[in-house]
Amino acid sequence: MAARVRETAISQLRRGVLEFCVLALLRDGERYSYELVRALGDADGLVTTEGTLYPLLGRLRREGVVDTTWRESPSGPPRRYYHLTPDGQAALDGFVIEWTRFRDSVDDLLGNGVLR
Amino acid sequence: MTTDTLHPLAADYLQRLRRAGRGLPRGRLRELLAEIEGHLSEAIDPSASDAQALTVLDKLGEPEAIIAADTPDPDELPARRGTKEWAAIILLLFGGFILGLGWFAGLILLWNSRAWTTREKWIGTLVIPGGLATSVLIGLIAIGAPTKKICHAFAGGVQHCTNATGQSTPILGVAVFAVLVLAPIATSVYLARRAA
User: Fold this and answer.
1) B2 and A33 in contact by Cβ < 8 A?
2) Which of A18, A107, B65, B88 qualifies as a cystine partner to B110, CB 3.0-4.6 A?
3) pTM of the complete model
4) Would the ipTM clear 0.90, i.e. be above it?
């Protein structure tokens, strides 16, 4: 029971922060989908199934925070390159501030919890 | 399609994804397939061993999970089961009594709604066209149908009649009628649950 509650909470946290991790990866320039998915997949504890990131990329596109361009690849099918839109940049900037506050508060509370 | 340049296991995975995604809007499934195909062709060399291919596919996750992640969430469709969806369900069930026209109105609402997949819409359409009105109509026709009577005339002018319909017919009739009534009700419950 406790394990299930924890898993649900963690998966909701992941879902909440993942899209901003995608935006953060695009901060320094465009990347294509496979690059993005591998970068997120290699981050410890962030992604359980890489495949579910593709629907997330689609949602970000529909939300207008990223835009895409198809380009030929030197090998294999064409690649879809993602870049931030001004909306996406603004969403990322806002999240970075909120996240820092959130993380500090949670760290404080968790730290207190251990001491008591 | 460059499926022929994919590792056999990757091609098989893509097929499973295509099958699992039949309920998705078509454009969305096409985009998803293109992205996953790109991933597969990049991550798995066609000459890779099966073990290498399976490792990549494990990381990618079950096709069904990917499709589930792409199914529109409540945030995207604020009124998953709004007034229109309820109207569609009620009209499909009872609309047939309004000269049959109400059912067609329900049908239009059903097919225009984004709350159901194509498969669910077909079930709503085909079980049973006309809804309860059809069931009642068929029931009335069955009751109204003249029951054959076999009469034996005996000497002295006395007539003795028996019903020609065998014992099994009324039971069968009731069973068929029950199915006819229950099927549209079950469909309504199904549609209401799927749209939730």
Assistant:
1) no
2) B88
3) 0.58
4) no
DSSP-derived secondary structure letter, A81 = E
Q: Which residues of chain A does B66 touch, with a Cβ-Cβ cutoff of 8 Å? A: 49, 51-52, 54-55
Chain A interface includes B62 (CB < 8 A): yes
Which residues of A, range 22-41, sit inside 8 Å of B by Cβ? 33-34, 37, 41
Domain match, B145 and B192 both: yes
- Strand ranges for chain B from DSSP E: 149-153, 159-163
Rounded CA-CA distance B134/B114 in Å is 27
Give me Rg for the CA atoms of chain A.
17
Quote the percentage of chain A above a pLDDT of 90: 66
Is residue A66 within 8 Å of residue A60, measured between CB atoms? yes
Rounded to whole angstroms, what are the CA distances from A61 to A13, A17, A83? 21, 16, 10
Residue A41 belongs to domain with CATH number: 1.10.10.10
Regarding whether B54 and B95 lie in a shared domain, the answer is: no
| Closest residue of chain A to B38, computed from CA coordinates | A77
Residue-number span of the structural domain to which B139 is assigned: 76-196
Residue A49 belongs to what domain range?
A: 2-115
